Amino acid sequence: MKKALQNKVFLSAVKLLIVLLSFYFIYNELNNNNQLNWEKFFDLLHRKWSVLGMLFLLSFSIANRYLEILKWQNLVNFLKPITVSEAAKQVLSALTAGIFTPNGLGEYAGKALYFNQKNTKKIIFLNLICNGIQMILTVIFGTIGLWILGYYYWVIGITAMVLLFFGFGFITKSIKIKGYSIEKLLVKINEIPKSIHFKNILLAIGRYLVFSHQYYFLFVAFDVDLPYPTLMASIASVYFLASSLPSFQFLDFAVKGSVALFFFEPLGINEWIVVFIATLMWFLNVVLPVVIGSYFVLKFKPKWN
Fold it and tell me: Are the C-beta atoms of 133 and 277 separated by less than 8 Å?
């Protein structure tokens, strides 16, 4: 009885700490980021504000997370069927837990806590598949974007590294490190039905198109007049390079903003517009889901059995 009470108090403290840290990191980054000029930000936002425009942009954020939730539900169904609402709890609370961990690593633990301990490795593996396909698409579209923008030597270098990676992987696929090998990983991937993989790829493509076009329409809203292929190629390049850098979710807009300046400034886009759009993308796709996810974190009950 006493131990159960101690566990309950400890869990409540951990949940509260996760939520408080999430909001602290968000506030701290917004308050201390030197890239932002809040007076200019709110002035520009006031001049461009419209209810229909915000609802339009918000619909992209909802679609973005909804597709991610469907991706997770689709993959977890390999273990056991879960509802969309259950998948939403797991995705949003894991996002909250991962905001202050490097490259969102806390998401893996956050999702695993919703399942029995015996399934922890399987859940981590499924999350790797979930995030992995999104990363592969980011590399593919980003490489195409770099080619369109004329960064041919970059594309050649990236292609060479990818080929070397796969070549090295093929040569060493049977070598085991602590019982794991690439060959064993491929076997595990093939155990998942092709229909689940196919659906995962389609949902990942849909999600990529949603958040990249949200970025595009924000530029349009701020009167950026560039050809569609050029703007989309730049956006794809930004996501590719930004995702290749080690970072934290709460630093996401700072990283993407810095990379975006590299690509968009040569195109004649005002640097403040680039920073503002990166900030809005972060707010719409990270901060708002974290706020909702905080509720699920506080309501969380672990699967200890």
Answer: no
Reading phi first (left if > 0) and then psi (alpha if -120 to 50, else beta), residue 180 is in beta
Region of residue 237 (phi > 0: left; psi between -120 and 50: alpha; otherwise: beta): alpha
Contact 268, 302 (CB under 8 A): no
Alpha helices in 177-270 (DSSP H): 182-191, 194-221, 228-244, 252-264
Q: Which of 82, 122, 130, 119 is nearest to 303 (CA)?
A: 119
User: Which residue do the tokens 């890239």 mark?
Assistant: 35
Token pair belonging to 129: 């598949």
> pLDDT tens for residues 67-101?
999 999 999 999 999 999 999 999 999 888 877 67
Count the neighbouring beta carbons within 10 Å of the beta carbon of residue 76: 24
Q: State how far the alpha carbon of 63 is from the alpha carbons of 58, 66, 190, in Å.
A: 9, 5, 29
Q: For residues 275 and 261, is the Cβ–Cβ distance under 8 A?
A: yes
Give the predicted TM-score (pTM) of the model: 0.85
Q: What tens digit of pLDDT does each residue of 264-282 get?
A: 888 888 888 888 888 888 8
